[in-house]
Design a protein that fits this description.
Number of helices: 33
Distance between the termini: 36 Å
Structural class: mainly alpha
Shape: globular
Length: 636
């Protein structure tokens, strides 16, 4: 919208304020500016309001006894407010050149604008101190991710990288890494090389997004003698993106000490020159247990070969212990060598060499969990046939203990029906002499399902490297075919859902098995809604319901919500016996005011021993709901 006339009017009003209100009636420039505004009055009521106020100000219309001084200030304030809300976004480069940032939805949508009222609660959480802010920001990002496209929010997201609550800073760092190159100018603006962790996070985001394009920026920080040690370390890590930095990195391995030297070695592992390889051969032979961790992110072929050579030596060393008499000293030495093997194998993750399977079969005897975890990650980040063959060989040798890797490999490479037929027996049970006998241990398969989810946007099932994190980006890969629908009947009728391994730790549904089931929900599969509805409704009644339970039930078009709220555990020390938890459930439950009041009354009857303040709030909510008040009114 062309606002030149409004800008001109503001200029004339400001001039009139300086000249004095006695000259208003004689100011022909102001009257001309007011005339131009008349055509705007049909666009929006606010322009009509401005126009009418200006007519009173210039004496064309009766001012109804209002003070012209106050009227002038009022119209100036209103014009300023309109111009602010209708303004655009601009960026300024290093030479102070102004360029417009197009925010229209038809131009690629770099940034978007939203009413400030939608942003205020999140901006307040970003800008304030104290507890509770993390939940506000995380919930807003989950429920209204679009508001974080607003340019004003970008500033506060960058600001949050220095938040005193490290979980908030880490969460926002993960989001910013998905923003793309458009966020980099804001990250570089006011960058302080002498800064602390917030500057390190900025640099890590810039390097992950821009790679070698910002190499000059990284080098300037490396050579800045006044830069903070942590910033220089992050800058040295960022040098890994440009192969031209090999000579500089070799020099830094000789001149730097401590963390900065390790950063130089880590970046050097991403180079492909002979000198880089020789430098690393010399270094790792001295401290394999320490330096191997620096090779974890490298994808260079020579790194895999180098680690394979070190692993072979370590396996031979461990095998030699069978010829040595057992004693306390020998046990200590063997334990140390196993720790070295563990560190080497961790760095070996994702690196495919012809001997991978042979090494894995032997290493499993010493470090079983590390071998399995490493293989699970490798099949996602580097889906080489060598890793799938390794999973099959481990399964044949070690059976159910390695079934998770084998199941994951088959999900990624085999038709869905074949996978089901191969592994369904893990959920079959037979009765022998009135005792239920489990033929197979299904734990590994369920552990794999915990890493699987149905992605409704991509319309496919995605397998993650490890258990999903709710704010850091997870590396994942689509499986070969959509999951066989017969799995749902087995999983939703599984009898061991309350095992300790599923109920320990925090998760969205209070139970890892139910969170897994929720991730697998596929709205395109006919007949699942009824199965899922019963499964989650019954769990909500047996255990404490969470808002996530209700959201999933609504997605399933479930109709019965009675007793979900009133079944909460409101004993004295229960984590659900508080007004915040109850209010969050009230907001989600699709029930009438009277039905919600009845649920609250049942809760009051149960929770006689809890904090009196909570009971008073629930009683007040119940009374208001019975009198026809809405949830927005009683919960604010």
């Amino acid at each position: 919208m062309n606002l030149e006339a409004l800008y001109e009017l503001r200029t004339r009003l400001e001039d009139s304020a300086i000249a004095g209100i006695k000259l208003l009636a004689e100011d022909f420039r102001l009257k001309r500016a007011v005339d131009k505004i008349e055509s705007y009055t049909a666009v929006a009521p606010v322009f009509k309001r401005i126009y009418d106020m200006c007519l009173k100000l210039t004496g064309i219309a009766d001012n109804d006894g209002e003070s012209k001084a106050e009227l002038l200030l009022d119209v100036l304030a209103l014009v300023d407010a309109v111009l602010c809300t209708q303004g655009g976004f601009y960026s300024i480069d290093e030479k102070d050149n102004l360029s417009y940032i197009d925010t229209s939805l038809n131009s690629g949508e770099t940034f978007r604008q939203f009413p400030y009222s939608r942003l205020k609660s999140v901006i307040d959480a970003f800008s304030s101190q104290g507890s509770g802010r993390y939940a506000i920001i995380a919930n807003a990002h989950e429920k209204e991710p679009e508001i974080f496209k607003d340019f004003r929010m970008k500033y506060w997201m960058v600001y949050a990288l220095g938040d005193s609550y490290s979980e908030t800073a880490q969460m926002v760092e993960g989001w910013l890494k998905n923003e793309g190159k458009c966020i980099c100018p804001l990250l570089k603006k006011d960058f302080d090389p002498k800064g602390k962790k917030d500057m390190v996070r900025r640099l890590e985001i810039i390097s992950e997004i821009s790679g070698e394009e910002e190499n000059d920026f990284y080098k300037s920080l490396v050579h800045d003698a006044d830069a903070a040690k942590e910033v220089r370390e992050a800058a040295i890590h960022a040098l890994r993106y440009d192969p031209a930095n090999e000579e500089l990195l070799i020099a830094l391995t000789g001149s730097e000490k401590g963390k900065c030297k390790e950063a130089a070695l880590a970046s050097l592992s991403h180079m492909n020159g002979e000198e880089a390889m020789q430098c690393w051969k010399k270094a790792i032979s001295k401290k394999p247990e320490v330096l191997s961790a620096l090779l974890h992110s490298s994808t260079r072929t020579w790194v895999g070969v180098l680690l394979g050579e070190q692993i072979k030596k370590q396996l031979e060393k461990l095998d030699s212990y069978k010829n040595i008499a057992d004693n306390k000293e020998t046990a200590g030495l063997k334990k140390k060598d196993i720790e070295i093997l563990d560190a080497l194998w961790d760095a070996f993750t994702g690196k495919a060499v012809p001997e991978t399977a042979d090494y894995a079969l032997i290493a499993y005897k010493y470090i079983p969990q590390r071998v399995v975890n490493s293989l699970n990650i490798s099949m996602i980040v580097n889906p080489d046939k060598l890793f799938f063959d390794t999973a099959e060989r481990l399964y044949k040798e070690y059976k159910d203990a390695c079934v998770e890797s084998a199941f994951a490999a088959d999900l990624l490479t085999m038709p869905a029906g074949d996978v089901y037929e191969k592994y369904k027996e893990y959920f079959n049970k037979s009765i022998i002499n009135h005792i239920i006998a489990v033929k197979k241990d299904e734990t590994g398969i369920i552990n794999c399902f915990i890493r699987l989810k149905y992605d409704e946007d991509k319309k496919c099932y995605m397998l993650a490297c490890s258990k999903r994190n709710h704010y850091i980006k997870t590396v994942e890969k689509p499986i070969f075919e959509a999951l066989d629908i017969r799995w749902y009947d087995l999983l939703l009728n599984y009898k061991n859902t309350e095992a300790k391994r599923y109920t320990n730790g925090w998760n969205l549904y209070g139970n890892a098995f139910y969170e897994m089931a929720a991730q697998l929900y596929n709205p395109l599969y006919e007949g699942l809604n009824e199965m899922y509805g019963k499964f989650f409704y019954n769990h909500a009644l047996r255990k404490h319901a969470t808002p996530e339970h209700v959201r999933l039930l609504k997605r399933c078009d479930w109709k019965e919500y009675k007793n979900i709220l009133s079944s909460l555990d409101v004993s004295k020390n229960s984590k659900t016996a508080n007004s915040y938890y109850v209010s969050e459930l009230l907001k989600e439950l699709p029930m009438s005011s009277q039905e919600l009041a009845q649920e609250l009354d049942k809760l009051l009857e149960k929770g006689r021993d809890i904090y009196v303040g909570y009971r008073a709030a629930w009683r007040e909510w119940s009374d208001k709901l019975k009198n026809g008040a809405g949830l927005d009114e009683i919960l604010g």
